[in-house]
């Protein structure tokens, strides 16, 4: 299993959480058990002291050697090797040596258990105390009987309490330690089963080929739905891109076939030409055809580039600067054959990619000049509208009545205007760039005008 695997990390994290949680639980249980045992044993110490004090009334210490030593059986502690039933076969218990008591009267030791012969001196202070004896911590309880001036001391070793608390905590964590490996195997199986849809999704994606870019319809859990949606969107984009590539290749082959045939025909005419006039005419035809082909190739390449662009690096650019630069880029005959009128606020800015926007305005202004009547005035107006958008209108006084529904269609040119130079790709390029800028373009037919309106969102 790889270290960067989801299965590995899920297995590691889940098992770690289980182990840490159970360890914390065992620790808390141990401390709680120790606290409860402390209370129980403290109560026993107090009760034993009162029992001893009650027995003192029936014991006579006259003519008795003091102190009276109470024997304590010495049974070897065999740990957990014996069961409770086996330990009960003895007449004593191994923990008796861990319990002790003393009785003092008038600062004189009257009675004590055998295991307190070197016990620390009496602490004349009622209540519970901690003391060290033979390198062991003892918990003692001191009871004072004022009518007899008697002190009763009962004690118990602390390790008794810790041993029982440890047994309780271990009893909780031992099954977990035993079940940790089976639990890990079970968790691994569950994780593998839960991640099975992801594996199936990966298998489906890997099986996709450029010829079979269909949507993934396999049912997926809610957590994988965003991934499935993103993959389907990617498949759509790839399929669209491949479709564009095929379309571009087919369009280029189709559109270049005719001018190449014409060039071949003119070359044949040039070879057959016998007079200088025929040679000149054929050469001029070849030059004109090559210019048209160059324009077509440039338009095809430009269209291919803009269709590959997914996002633009936009900035604010003065609109008047873009329009003036686009006008300056027009061929001189077109520029001089038309009167241009720009009506816009010099402070207006347009938000977009300057180079792409210059392509838009150059194509639109070039079309306006091509299709305008000679010596007519083409008006370019720009202003903000009530929706805080920038609206640019190009008003072209022309008798042209194209099919507005087909404007922007690749290689479409109105049959009545085939004599005007063009490839039918300019508006396709314009519409793609307008789409990239989340803008809008529309066409309006009037009695004597053909208007193009661009609407760009304004950005602060």
From TrEMBL:
Pfam families: HATPase_c (PF02518), HisKA (PF00512). InterPro entries: HATPase_C_sf (IPR036890), HATPase_dom (IPR003594), His_kinase_dom (IPR005467), HisK_dim/P_dom (IPR003661), HisK_dim/P_sf (IPR036097), TCS_sensor_his_kinase (IPR050428). Residues 251-460 form the Histidine kinase domain. It is found in: Membrane. It catalyses: ATP + protein L-histidine = ADP + protein N-phospho-L-histidine. The chain crosses the membrane at residues 6-28, 176-195. Coiled coil: none annotated. It is an enzyme of class 2 (transferase). Gene3D superfamilies: 1.10.287.130, Histidine kinase-like ATPase, C-terminal domain (3.30.565.10). SUPFAM superfamilies: ATPase domain of HSP90 chaperone/DNA topoisomerase II/histidine kinase, Homodimeric domain of signal transducing histidine kinase. Its EC number is 2.7.13.3. Keywords: ATP-binding, Kinase, Membrane, Nucleotide-binding, Phosphoprotein, Transferase, Transmembrane, Transmembrane helix, Two-component regulatory system. It is a multi-pass membrane protein. Its main location: membrane. This is histidine kinase.
